[in-house]
Amino acid sequence: EELLAYLSENVELSLKFIEEQIPSLSVMRPDGTYLLWIDCRELGLSDGEIKEALLKKGKLGLEPGPKYGLGGEGFVRMNIACARDTLMDGLERLKRAFA
Prior knowledge:
The protein is α+β, with helices and mostly antiparallel strands. It has helices spanning about 1-20, 45-55, 85-95; strands at about 25-30, 35-40, 65, 75-80. It has a four-stranded antiparallel beta sheet with strand order 1-2-4-3, with helices on one face. A hairpin with a 6-residue loop joins strand 1 and strand 2. It is globular and about 40 Å long. The mean pLDDT is about 95.
């Protein structure tokens, strides 16, 4: 029960951070998982450009949406089942990647 509460707080923190700090991205609220499905299509970048920005600018490796099948283009998946300081570091790197 404590783990579920902690993960729920990570979800809320992540959604709020992205909404307030990276408005060009949107996130679907996860339903029973600790993986965020992040919509990057508003950036107007190809999947290759998204990956490059994440790796080179943000120093962040996220799962590319196309890995999950058709319709995944322009999306990335982020695991938020981690310590809060690790999560905040990842979110700041996400922000840096698309600044």
